[in-house]
Amino acid sequence: MTCAHLCAPESTTRPRTGACWRPHRRCPSGTEETTAVPTPAFDPLAPVRRDGDPECDVFVWGTVFLDIIMTGLEALPDGGQEVWATGMGSCPGGIANLAVAARRLGLRTSLAAAFGDDAYGDFCWETLADEERVDLSRSRRFEGWHSPVTVSMAVDRDRGMVSHGHAPPLDATALIGEPPRSRAVMAELAPGRPLTGGTEPTWVEKARDAGALVFADVGWDPSGRWPKDVLDQLVVCDAFLPNAVEAMAYTRTRTPNEALYVLADLVPLAVVTNGEEGALAIDSRTGEEAVVPALRVDALDPTGAGDVFGAAVVLGTVAGWPLSQRIGFAALCSALAVQHFGGSLAAPGWGDIADWWHHLRDGAATDSYHRSLRRRYEFLDAVVPEVPIGAERRATATIARHVDVEGYRPAATTRGEPA
């Protein structure tokens, strides 16, 4: 395996007559071409698809970073010190983590993002469009705007990160225009970028008016203020998925349970993730509550695990699964992700999920933990009674071409290994 060579593909050509360009997506007149969202080889939503449904399952907007992941470090470098990593991986990060996670779970996924016209932008665009088959019809390339970059250093099951970038040339409204009709959109609550309350409808409000469910999360507040009015944006949301620290900070509560009950009064589906303690959820539309423990795993890198969890909740919700199955499935997917390095590289596909379930289902372990897992995940037998032909797996092609990660084992050697 070799590390990434981040050079522009020879086949990439760019018009230099304007400030931005959108390859193969706009006609010369500026009108949108019709672009079909790629259909996955295995479609978990096949039982619920009907004529006239939205072509897009999930639509997301955000910033794509080039993530460079250094692994095998004994410690982060001190001032003036140089240390060598034993492994390195390169992949699209930022909002790409969420888009790739949704796509690998079989959701027809469309992403709106700004891409630079540099080699990093070439790499991220090609990986998302060609290898991950994420629809980029509402993304644009911008001449002279360089791609944001994050260097992540994994040390002792934790990580440190250094990032650099500039604000995209266009905001969400200008970039997206009219959002595509979709089953769901995923957005972030942010003090400076409200989802509602402006003089014109936001892209989230437009998507919701067209029938999309709105799933929201929230980021860390480096100021430590955690303004409660951020939660006012939940009026246009159908689901909210913060972690326990964020949930308690914004609700001014002392426990994840207390925070969950506050949030359940503000949004139909409230989910609080709590790390090694699992996840809690209330769906006020169905009257269900769920408490799901985390799986026992050897966690290597938590990068992108929250995005994987969120994508799995979206899938289970639009598929109509009971709440306990939705949250259990999300916990499983994030547990599979944290056992590998690299954000979007680690997001599991249905091949990985089927391998895990069949190994557990057919395994010989009879202790209480494994019996509990079989009961909790027996619903997967109806979804993947066999390993689906052509089912997505982790980025074997991307990893084989662009990654040199110590300890990585291809799917052929990890097949059937449970979390």
UniProtKB/TrEMBL annotation:
Residues 71-345 form the Carbohydrate kinase PfkB domain. Residues 28-47 are annotated as: Disordered. It comes from the Bacteria. The keyword Transferase applies. Pfam families: PfkB (PF00294). GO terms for molecular function: kinase activity. Keywords: Kinase, Transferase. This is Carbohydrate kinase family protein. It comes from Phycicoccus sonneratiae.
